[in-house]
Design brief:
- The protein has 4 helices and 2 strands, in the order ααααββ.
- Helix 2 packs across helix 3 and helix 3 crosses helix 4.
- Strand 1 and strand 2 form a beta hairpin.
- 17% of the residues are buried.
- The longest helix has 15 residues.
- It folds into 2 domains: 34 residues, no CATH class; 82 residues, Orthogonal Bundle (Arc Repressor Mutant, subunit A).
- The chain has 119 residues and is mainly alpha-helical.
- A two-stranded antiparallel sheet has the order 1-2.
- The chain starts with 9 loop residues before the first helix and ends in a 9-residue tail after the last strand.
Length: 119
């Protein structure tokens, strides 16, 4: 792995290692000095759900692009939109999200009373 740029510090390297651990499923709680969240999610599904709850848990409507931007900005994870759409569909099918709109303009929000327990 090659890391380039003028602003490379210990924290950035730790974030990259944490992201690699998330991607390979080998998450180690000591790999970062700052937690991704209080619950320390270990799978991408958990990270996505955590981001949804933290940023949109109040019932705010959001798009898959909104979520992609949140994951990139706050979690340092770049997820393809089609992958996010798959996770959002699963959350919708299991009763954790409401959705409306056409395929091109679909929006989601956290359902106020999920039909079953999550994760």
């Amino acid at each position: 792995i090659t890391i380039e740029g003028g602003k490379i510090d210990e924290q950035r390297v730790l974030q990259i290692l944490e992201m690699l651990n998330l991607m390979t499923g080998k998450y180690n709680e000591s790999s970062s000095s700052e937690p991704i969240s209080a619950s320390r999610p270990s799978q991408l599904k958990d990270v996505i759900w955590d981001a949804i709850m933290v940023h949109f848990g109040d019932g705010t409507w959001f798009t898959s692009k909104d979520l992609k931007d949140i994951l990139k900005r706050y979690y340092g994870i770049d997820v393809k939109l089609n992958s996010l759409a798959t996770y959002l569909l699963r959350f919708y099918q299991t009763g954790y999200l409401d959705r409306k709109g056409s395929r091109a303009g679909r929006i989601y929000r956290v359902r106020s009373s999920p039909s079953q327990s999550m994760l």
